[in-house]
UniProtKB/TrEMBL annotation:
One of its GO terms (molecular function) is ATP binding. The lineage of its organism: Bacteria, Pseudomonadati, Pseudomonadota, Alphaproteobacteria, Acetobacterales. The gene is glnQ. CDD domains: ABC_HisP_GlnQ (cd03262). Belongs to the ABC transporter superfamily. It comes from Acetobacter ascendens. This is Glutamine ABC transporter ATP-binding protein. Residues 11-244 form the ABC transporter domain. It comes from the Bacteria. Keywords: ATP-binding, Nucleotide-binding, Transport.
């Protein structure tokens, strides 16, 4: 018999919609993510992938339906700080604070939000900077780093909040091929460590390797939720087939 904690979803989305004016960006989405699962969101440009991932930590509030994270209903009463402690996010363009060093980027939120001491936060940051392969860059400023290194800082910074869930929105899209390999292998490693991961990416080999489930979106709707094996060999819809034909 499975223990309840392994079957209760960490993220549960029911009939969730998001509008921009009259435009339906997310149309009544339904899915669950269980603790430790890796979800990859695929779909053409403009299909709503970023909007979906941004609703999961309420950068974009949803308009209707429900979003539950860790058993808590997420809505306008949710404390955004508590939510961001649970759900970390890594963006395509890193979003580092340019006026802060790498180390300061990493320790700011843990000190302010998690009320760690500087020493505790620094220890943690050094551990994660080591894990993402840039232990020697701690005192540099973002502008002094390559894109790949900046994205590693962004990942380390998100990990310093020790979130239950990590969201990635095309984390390798702005990187050159060599840097992509490095960042992908870091996310691979996180996946192996059991962090629940929701990732938008166009890296197909990576998706196939890490995903427990692929969510395929088009025009604000989820058209398929399947295993990568099924998705890449026999997608259920013509739109997914067309998408794959263009990608592969
Ligand atoms: P994707 O990440 O799949 O490329 P997005 O989620 O960024 O797609 O966008 C989905 C749709 O919502 C697009 O048509 C986009 O133009 C629109 N959209 C996204 N953000 C906004 C916004 N802040 N205001 C108005 N329209 C938006
Ligand atoms: Mg996007």
């Amino acid at each position: 018999m499975r223990h309840e904690s392994t079957t209760t979803p960490i993220i549960s989305v029911r009939g969730m919609s998001k509008l921009f004016g009259d435009f339906v960006a997310l149309d009544r989405l339904n899915f669950d993510v269980r603790k430790g699962e890796k979800i990859v969101i695929l779909g053409p440009s403009g299909s709503g992938k970023s909007t979906l991932i941004r609703t999961l930590n309420r950068i974009e509030p949803h308009d209707s339906g429900t979003l539950t994270i860790n058993g808590k209903l997420i809505n306008d009463k949710t404390n955004p700080i508590q939510l961001r402690c649970m759900v970390g996010m890594v963006f395509q363009n890193y979003n580092l604070f340019p006026h802060l060093s790498v180390l300061e980027n990493c320790i700011l939120a843990p000190m302010r939000v998690r009320h760690m001491t500087r020493i505790e936060a620094t220890d943690l940051a050094r551990r994660y900077l080591d894990q993402v392969g840039i232990p020697d860059q701690a005192d540099k400023y973002p502008i002094q780093l390559s894109g790949g290194q900046q994205q590693r800082v962004a990942i380390a910074r998100a990990l310093c909040m020790q979130p239950e869930v990590m969201l990635f929105d095309e984390p390798t899209a702005a990187l050159d091929p060599e840097a992509i390999v490095g960042v992908v292998s870091i996310i691979d490693e996180l996946a192996e460590q059991g962090i629940t991961t929701v990732c938008v990416t166009h890296e197909m080999a990576f998706s196939r390797r890490i995903a427990d489930h692929i969510i395929f979106m088009d025009q604000g709707k989820i058209l398929e939720i399947t295993s990568p094996g099924t998705f890449f060999t026999s997608p259920q819809t013509d739109r997914a087939q067309n998408f794959l034909n263009q990608m592969l």
